[in-house]
Amino acid sequence: MKMKKIEQTPFAELPEALVEEMLSKSEQVGDRLYDSFKEIQINKANMRKQLQEQNILKQDTEVGYPSIPTTCGVDGSYAVEKLLATDFAACAAVAIEGLTPPSEKRHWEKPHHRVFIHPEKHDPDTGTVIRGLMMEMELELAAKAPHDIVFLDGSLTTPLIYMNQAVNKVLEWENEGAQTEVGKELKERFRRFLEDYKTILESLRTDKLWVSMPKYTTRRELGKKLSWSSHYDDRAILTNILSPGEFTSPVSLEEPLQPWHLRLPFKDKELERLKDEVISAINRLYVMYYRPHNWTPVFRIEMASSIATNNSRIAVLLQGLKYQSGTPGILEPYPLYIADRMVKHLGSAIPAFRQTATRRMTELHQGDIGEIFFSMHGYRTESGR
């Protein structure tokens, strides 16, 4: 007799009354969201007119048709699995070449990934430090990639924020007399991190572009400049305004409420100089928006001032974006999409790594292996990108 397959639903484990109340409230939420959406639709013509009058709205045909550039996407992920006896910490970064042709003919140093995995003592802030290490790996891969355009996931300011949080935590651990492998690794890579970050933020080489493309953002450079409603960020509003092939002139990145700051893990005059140059470059960043096709949302693109002020480099950037987002259903440039797909699996792969480590421990242990299985029992995995 065949057993009937039980259909899985997202509400299977929830009380019926709770589900009914949440569905009712969801309809109310839909009403509120539609009111905000309708506000954009009503004001869309006026907003578009504002962009035209300020000479912000442009067509990609205005900057020319350079040859299709080679591209690369870089993304990273981290995970911390909390075990009975220890924490299993891991992070990885990958670099993926864009759609071919064209393919990068210059030497691309292998491997096109970086990885760290190590047991760490129980600490709720291990994820903060390993996230900083992940950023170091991402920027190293991005700086080494020989491609014409290197896409990074997230904002260009994110590495500074994450690294400052990580360094603060490492120094706090050291003040308490604790030495960790992830903290040691982060400090060893720190000088290289600043050098790579400076290279990316300045983008001085005329044959290479480094740009960052955050999917989620709360920034409103144009919204504040043109007094738009604060219900939506710039990317959401411009997706309803821009037609395929249109982009906005680069504008300066929104200034932070507090000055940018980065704590150094150790005293060094060279590091102080590099840190100051990095912060200076962050203060000169620009942002623009581009909609290459009608099946893509508007892309938010953060870039160095050396790119934003050069129409020839913007033309190369737009051509690369248009070519790498030509597949309906993929809502970001192809290499970033593939890199994102890859690193998302790190969290789900951690239990397999733990099982391999557990098997090796049982081979080495002469006593009751049940003790090993208890100490290596996983309770939950925290992961992020």
Question: Summarize this, please?
Answer:
This protein is an alpha+beta fold. The chain is 46% helix and 18% strand.
For the record, the CATH class is: Alpha Beta
Based on CA atoms alone, the radius of gyration comes out at 24 Å
Q: Provide mean pLDDT, rounded.
A: 85
Order of helices and strands: HEEEEHEHHHEHHEEHEEHHHHHE
Q: What portion of the residues fall into strands of 2 or more residues?
A: 15-25%
Question: Key terms for this structure?
Answer:
alpha+beta, 5-stranded antiparallel β-sheet, archaeoglobus fulgidus dsm 4304 fold, 385 residues, 46% helix, globular
Structure report:
With 385 residues, the protein is of the alpha+beta class. It has a single domain (66-346), classed as archaeoglobus fulgidus dsm 4304 fold (2-Layer Sandwich), CATH 3.30.2170. The chain is built from 13 helices and eleven strands. It has helices at 16-53, 126-144, 158-175, 181-188, 190-202, 221-225, 234-241, 269-282, 305-308, 311-324, 334-343, 346-364, 369-375, and strands at 57-59, 71-83, 87-97, 113-120, 149-153, 209-213, 246-248, 251-252, 286-291, 299-303, 378-384. Strands 2, 3, 4, 5, 6 and 11 form a six-stranded mixed beta sheet that branches. Strands 1, 7, 8, 9 and 10 form a five-stranded antiparallel beta sheet that branches. A hairpin with a 3-residue loop joins strand 2 (71-83) and strand 3 (87-97). Helix 2 (126-144) packs parallel to helix 4 (181-188) and helix 2 crosses helix 5. The longest helix is centred in the first third of the chain and has 38 residues, at 16-53.
